[in-house]
Every structure is written in C-alpha cells, then in structure tokens.
Amino acid sequence: MWFVFAILLLSGLSMRIKSPNDLEGLGLHARKQIEAVLNSSKKSVNGNLLPNNKSQSKTLTASEPKFCEWPSKNPAVWLHIALEKEFKSYWEGGDFVCEMMLPNSPKNWRYDFCLISSRILIEFDGYGFHRTKKAFLNDRDKERFAQTNGWVVFRFTNTMVRENIESLVCDIRTLHELRGRHEFSHIERVGKTFCRFVDVE
C-alpha cells in the first residue's frame, strides 16, 4: 500500500509535487519527509519522478516515513499550516510550536499550538475528546493552570476552522500583537513530538 502511494506521490498524480519548490505550503515535518523521498528519486525520460531501482524492490520497514493524505481533510492540520506560515516555526527562528508542555504542571498536559513570546496557547475542542465528565473537568483544570501561569488559552472547534480560518488567524494575530513580548529562556524538545517551555529564572 505504501509503495503504491509513494509511486503516486512521486509521479505527481496524488499531490502534484514534482520538485522541492512545490513543498512551500507544507509544514516542516511533511516537507522533510517528502524531500527525503524526492532526494532519493530520479527523473524518467518523460520528466516524472520515479523511485530508484533499488527502492522498488525494498520492503517498507517500521522506521521509514509514512505519508498522510494531502491536502489534509483535518481542520487541525489546516490551522497548523496557517499558523506556521503566519508566525514561523520556533525551530526556524519564529514564534510557533506544537504540542507545548508547561513547567511545573501537575499532569503531563500538552497544548495543541503555542505562540511563545506572547504566551498564547491554542486548543482544539472536539466532541470526541470531551465526551465524559472526567475529560471535560480535566480540560478545565488544564486551562486554569495555564491561565494562572500567565497564558491565554484560545479554543477552536473543527467547524470554526472549516468555516473561517482566515478570521481565526486574524484574531490570533491581533491578540499576539496586543499581548506584546514576554521573556523566556528557551524551548526544549521532549521526545520526538512534544516541547517544553523554559521560563527565565
């Protein structure tokens, strides 16, 4: 299955990606995955990208990259892309990170998106994650912890993003400008996907 999708990807039929220049609108992680595939490929006579002969006979291992459907149908991905484009990734000199953990948290809470210098946390509220009373109360505790530590929590639903993502990004930009810059030490990685905020001592 993966090999078939890789062929579609490389031939440009699925995602219309034929060169690294076509990756501009994607997030950092997606760009790196696709660039790795593009760099290991060669052009055929008709100009389509095809895998090297060696990779055609190779079987997929657990450590190899897996690709998601593109364009994504997930509003969280849409907002991620829009925010990374607007504020630039912290890892590339910007202000935006995903999966943020705050220090001294009573639980290992993580917040979906974060604008570091203005201390804005952005959370997706989905019915699937808040069906029980326990989950709902946990989310309130998580929000209260962030607020009492100087953070603002913005909450969005999938419907809000689907219907007017530009307005949401504009609202976030406005709040980001109003809150100004708060000093912090740095952001550290926690595992492969999480980040932890390190405040000024």
From TrEMBL:
Residue intervals of the DUF559 domain: 111-173
InterPro entries: DUF559 (IPR007569), Restrct_endonuc-II-like (IPR011335)
Listed SUPFAM superfamilies: Restriction endonuclease-like
UniProt keyword annotation of Zinc-finger present: no
Keyword annotations of the record: Plasmid
Protein name in UniProt: DUF559 domain-containing protein
Species for this entry: Alteromonas mediterranea 615
